[in-house]
């Protein structure tokens, strides 16, 4: 995708396709984001991806018609990213899994929303028929945003995540079918 510039509430940022050079900064950003919220599947440090791992992901995503890796950048620094990940299996090649994360300092600037919008545009252009995602039941803002963009609740995984308070929470499965 072509990079796009946004200016929201006195913050200017770019959304663009991830490049190999981003792999150097992405491990630290992912670690920070994982430690700032319990909305992610991981706790800080779990399922760690190093620079080489991110280089591999970025390279594979760039070569695949069913994958997209986007970054959001403020003043040359990555503040969030999203991925659409598909596969080449005939029965499921029409769909991708979407995930997004943004540094807490940059919540409220529509960065996640714009990463989602660009991912939807990409999916439409590439004739992807379905985008699916999972979201923690307590993440009301995200669920509201996804519904705004045409996602529907397709199911609930009961007591799927145990958070720091020791309680179990449901994961909401959502999908958007693209005509």
From TrEMBL:
<protein>
    <submittedName>
        <fullName>Acetyltransferase</fullName>
    </submittedName>
</protein>
<dbReference type="Pfam" id="PF00583">
    <property type="entry name" value="Acetyltransf_1"/>
</dbReference>
<dbReference type="InterPro" id="IPR016181">
    <property type="entry name" value="Acyl_CoA_acyltransferase"/>
</dbReference>
<feature type="domain" description="N-acetyltransferase">
    <location>
        <begin position="13"/>
        <end position="179"/>
    </location>
</feature>
<dbReference type="InterPro" id="IPR000182">
    <property type="entry name" value="GNAT_dom"/>
</dbReference>
């Amino acid at each position: 995708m072509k990079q796009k510039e946004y200016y929201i509430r006195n913050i200017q940022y770019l959304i663009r396709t991830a490049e190999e050079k981003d792999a150097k900064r992405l491990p630290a950003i992912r670690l920070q984001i994982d430690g700032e919220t319990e909305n992610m599947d991981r706790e800080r440090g779990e399922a760690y991806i190093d620079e080489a791992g991110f280089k591999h992901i970025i390279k594979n995503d760039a070569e695949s018609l069913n994958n997209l890796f986007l970054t959001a950048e403020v003043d040359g620094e990555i503040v969030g990213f999203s991925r659409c990940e598909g596969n080449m299996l005939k029965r499921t090649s029409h769909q991708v899994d979407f995930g997004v994360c943004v540094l807490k300092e940059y919540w409220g600037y529509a960065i996640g929303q714009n990463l989602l919008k660009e991912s939807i545009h990409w999916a439409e252009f590439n004739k992807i028929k379905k985008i699916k995602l999972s979201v923690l039941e307590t993440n009301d803002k995200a669920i509201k945003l996804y519904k705004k963009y045409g996602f529907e609740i397709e199911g609930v995984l009961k007591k799927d995540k145990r958070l720091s308070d020791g309680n179990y929470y449901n994961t909401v499965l959502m999908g958007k079918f693209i005509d």
